[in-house]
């Protein structure tokens, strides 16, 4: 996909020339090589590729959730103009679940079967100060 030099104001996410390196002993050196794409406000972007081609790794890099030993070694990920690769864990945590969400690939492992679904969703809003434990109580117990 062609990338414009100056993303327009309605570009929400811009991944440019991204490389993600795998640790020694992995099945290949780079999980992601020279990947660039943009997502505009209100746009739905589908990334299609064979299994192991790096779709999830690119998404994990956006979320600041790359596994230990896996690192972005080149490129940038601009979200609303801010380079996500330069954020600290604390800054990532402030964005995750508030401005950027991810639905993980394996639904059976994404939700904790020992907790109500409502409690797991309420937790996100509470963590970002958008619901108090009291106002989240109906969601915690009814879903
Ligand atoms: N935790 C990890 N440690 C080392 N290498 C990994 C790890 N997770 C994935 N990889 C490797 O990273 C590469 C990209 O994997 P990724 O999971 O991003 O692929 P994908 O495109 O999402 O595949 P799928 O369609 O199966 O979900 C693959 O070579 C994979 O083996
Ligand atoms: Mg995947």
Task: Explain the overall architecture.
With 143 residues, this protein is α+β, with helices and mostly antiparallel strands. The chain has a domain at 11-87: P-loop containing nucleotide triphosphate hydrolases (Rossmann fold, 3-Layer(aba) Sandwich), CATH 3.40.50. 29% of the residues lie in helices and 23% in strands. It is built from 5 helices and 4 strands. The chain has helices spanning 55-63, 89-95, 107-110, 117-127, 133-142, and strands spanning 11-21, 30-40, 71-79, 82-83. Strands 2-1-3-4 form a 4-stranded antiparallel beta sheet, covered by helices on one side. α4 runs antiparallel to α5. The protein is globular, with a radius of gyration of 17 Å. The mean pLDDT is 90. Adenosine-5'-triphosphate (ATP) is lined by residues 22-23, 26-28, 31, 49, 51-57, 67, 70, 105. InterPro entries: ABC_Ni/Peptide_Import, ABC_transporter-like_ATP-bd, P-loop_NTPase. It catalyses: a dipeptide(out) + ATP + H2O = a dipeptide(in) + ADP + phosphate + H(+).
């Amino acid at each position: 996909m062609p990338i414009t030099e100056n993303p327009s104001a309605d570009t929400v996410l811009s991944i440019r020339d991204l490389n993600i390196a795998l640790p020694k002993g992995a099945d290949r050196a780079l999980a992601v090589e020279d990947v660039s794409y943009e997502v505009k406000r209100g746009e739905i972007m589908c990334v299609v590729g064979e299994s192991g081609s790096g779709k999830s790794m690119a998404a994990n890099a956006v979320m600041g959730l790359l596994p230990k030993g896996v690192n972005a070694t080149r490129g940038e990920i601009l979200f609303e103009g801010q380079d996500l690769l330069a954020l600290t864990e604390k800054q990532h945590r402030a964005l995750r679940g508030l401005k950027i969400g991810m639905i993980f690939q394996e639904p059976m492992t994404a939700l904790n079967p020992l907790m109500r679904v409502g409690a797991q969703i309420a937790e996100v809003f509470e963590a970002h100060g958008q619901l108090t434990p009291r106002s989240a109580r109906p969601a915690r117990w009814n879903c």
